[in-house]
Amino acid sequence: MYGFVFSVMLTVVIFAVPMSTFAEQPESSYWYPEGLMNWSPESDADAIFNKSSVPLAEREVLYDVNDTAQSEAKLVALSALNPNTSGVPSQGGNKFFANTFSYWQYADLMVYWAGSAGEGIIVPPSADVIDAAHKNGVPILGNVFFPPKVYGGKEEWLEQMLVQRDDGSFPMADKLLEVASYYGFDGWFINQETGGGTVETAEKMKDFLAYLQEHKQEGMQIMWYDAMTKNGDINWQNALTDQNKMFLQDGEQRVSDSMFLNFWWNSQEASYNKAKEIGRNPYDLYAGIDVEANGTDTNVNWEGIFPEGRAPYISLGVYRPDWAFKTSTTMNEFYHKEQEFWTGAAGDPSETSKKDSWKGMAHYFTAKTSVQELPFVTHFNTGSGKSFAVNGVTKSEQDWNNRSLQNILPTWRWLTESDGQPLHVNFDWNQAYYGGSSLKISGKLSSENATHVKLYKTDLPIEKDTEISVTYRTDVKKPNMRLGVSFIGEPGQYVFFDVKKKGRNQWTTETVKLKKYQDKKIAAISLYFDSEEVIEDYQMNIGEIKVTSKHSDKKVPDAPTNPTWLETAYEGGLYADLSVKWDPVDDTNIQHYELYRKHANGEREFIGATPNNAYHIEDLRRDGKETSTTLEIVAVSKDYVKSEAVEVTFEWPPYPIPEADFSASQTVAAPGDEIQFFNHSSEATEKVEWHFSGATPATSTESNPIVTYQEEGVYAVTLVAKNSEGEDSLTKEGFITISEDATNIENVALDKTASASGQCGTSEGPLNAIDGETANNSKWCAIGENQWLTVDLGEVYHLSEFVLKHAEAGGESPAFNTKAFKIETSLDGENWENAVTVTANTAAVSEHPIPITEARYIRLSIQQPTQGGDQAARIYELEAYGY
């Protein structure tokens, strides 16, 4: 039994029995109807991590920078902000390259696009996405997706959703509202595309939607998708018509708050007229455009929504703007595509009227701002990084992403004014003051190309002690920079303040008092760059801009209290998986909480941060042979002032004895062929000792030695793994076969016969898994539990290795690679022997050498088809090598 100690001023000792196996990382929720009906926060261990604690901010239009933009019509984005429905970490992950969408200023509503027949059809937004949306003042909806039958949709799911009690209530509607309230998001997008409905089904769905309207909390929204019509058929209208109007408005009854109209339209004037006819605001209708495949090359009849010389007919619905992320391989490429998508090819939201067919959303929609209250602080943190910095000091070298930590990013990207070639502006993920990124301004600078960079639209009050500061870093002698602000009433007229402090290659802060402008409101924040001398390679990194009160840094928040372990688990005595919660500070001025690890040398390593009051720590590596580890939890105010730390200590189990394990490059070889052995012993191993009977060399202490065998025969191999605590020995009898026949080894499963437990579609049968192809979706696919694939080789072979090519090998997401499976062999197809067992595969191609085995039949059985909850097995190729 190991102890866990929590301390601030007092010490409380709590004992817990640790789990010996590794705990699963908390994941964002997804359900089928039956699963949601049985869900409760109390029964879902992950629920506490899936809550957003960021309230929906208010935001304003204030003024335009582009004469073509308007704010009457709205924009909704239906975006897959995570690559999968299942397996989505609740609080970010350990990859830098993530979909850190940031053009919130143009979106009036976000739909978290997710759901599939193989994973779950009811999907709330992940907590980090809710946090980011709310920080920017954008409501976000979860998705209820009844798929077409061709994609696995089932009528029973629709029937379960529409079950009605005797009193007229809908239990599933109550559950949807409960989830939205508990997790803190803003409603649901209802997408009913499963065929087989009737007039009665349509009436029931209308009643279901009306029930949601009557019982939803204030501020919640229900959006309906244009698919089902009044007779229950799936028949996309692409407009508001008499066939689908009942799902928006039924006489005096408001049924849905808005409707997303399908993509196949030329003009939405008829929808405008129909909305007026039924007494609804035309801007409750959103004309869909599908940009998933072609992004900025999508052909859109813009005049069908935005007729020249008059107000827009209806609002705009953008389906899958995550195209920018999905088609990119680097963060710079992703951000470049996003900029073009949202602000046009020129990358200037104030000038979008050029001849380019794709003018960007900034051409049609005025950017809105939620920057209205003091303090306002930005570190230009995009929500991911290659490391994590705190006040200019790198506190973690690990890749990370967590959109809960994304700052409100510049309103205009990028609005640069210059009489010459303006400086280049972008995010810099190699330099950060706080978080994982900063703002970088670079290029050749002189008086001929002095550059005014307009960054933020704001509505910030100036009080008598209000200050504005900028924290920057440059390698030139002086900053050559001024800080600019304009005021409400004259947003285009700027006042500039010289930034004078020199701090070459050091983060430096310049603060300006704004008392002179008391009672005004800041309308915009900008930076101005100029130099009398020519600087060929000017570079300036901006790590922070802050508008706050003079003595805000002296207002230290209270520390969090009452930390409690939710779960503790260990893997091999070297890694800890920990979940901890604490009582939040009762103060609306708290931005988030930071967690640090205290090392024996006194260094503090950043572990993570969250606005929530619970956090999961995954794969915390033991530091040497330490017996205990101490973590700190601190509250961080909106001014980024930190509280005292709450210390959290846990004890490690005894340091483990190693576990020996190994594999070989091949288990069958010809005399004289080289064979390499690979040490897979547990991480606690400090040294190894190999014994090879009949080989040269006969022994080795190398980790991955190469040996040869000169004589035909069958040989055993022994590996001894050692450390200071003891040793473990593993002998594999008959592991190596040396035979002249090894030169005849080939893929004996190629183009043989195969059968399977099932298949997803007519073109995804078992023969695809043995045809030697991975292109053109040549795979075996089957949905459901306990799927299997059997290959008849036609005769008995001596098998030495299996190779499986999983989903990623065929171009699909790594999340769909088979995780757990077995490969068995048989001589008669009736009696089976296990050859391979895998429980945690992540690879696109997995190789499995085995001792020589005689078999005619091979059976692949799948226990977990993907890395998450998707239940579709995808095998592009099953290869069996032998002679």
Automatic annotation (TrEMBL):
InterPro entries reported in the protein's UniProt record: EndoD-like_D2 (IPR054110), ENGase (IPR032979), FA58C (IPR000421), Galactose-bd-like_sf (IPR008979), Ig-like_fold (IPR013783), PKD/Chitinase_dom (IPR022409), PKD_dom (IPR000601), PKD_dom_sf (IPR035986)
An example Gene Ontology CC term for this record: cytosol
Superkingdom assignment: Bacteria
Domain PKD: 658-743
Classification via SUPFAM superfamilies: Galactose-binding domain-like (SSF49785), PKD domain (SSF49299)
Pfam families: F5_F8_type_C, GH85_C, Glyco_hydro_85, PKD
Domain F5/8 type C residues, every copy: 738-883
Name by which UniProt lists this protein: Endo-beta-N-acetylglucosaminidase
Organism whose genome encodes this protein: Virgibacillus phasianinus
